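ingest -> validate -> predict -> emit
validate: passed (alphabet ok, no gaps, 140 aa)
predict: started
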Amino acid sequence: MKKLFTVFTVALMMVSCGPSTEEIIDTKEREVLKAHDLTMPEMGKINGYKRKALDKAAELDSLGDQDAANTYRDMAQTLEQANEGMMQWMRQFTVRTERADWETDETLDYLAKQKAFIDSVNNNIYEALELGKKTFDTQE
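emit:
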């Protein structure tokens, strides 16, 4: 009996010493929001490069260089898609207060999917930024 009590006590201590479910959810949610917060400040640059690409396409159109103009229009589309990815993620993200009645497993699964989604959005943003930097920052 004494041995059973000791095993039970140790098991109880191990469970109580770990992070609570709420702490785990908080950590996962912070990871998702941190990923968003890393790239959100870059959105102005994305839109700036998009405007430059469209301006350059218009300039090349006026010179009759359709192939080069199309290259800049394609770049503007890539930049717009990166921007739209962030906007789409923000529109569909469910804030904590709207998830209050969700089960723990459902919440953790949702946050894991959101982390993957925002990581993909971030990759697209960084690739689009690199394209804009290579094209425009070396020309100025």
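The radius of gyration is 24 Å.
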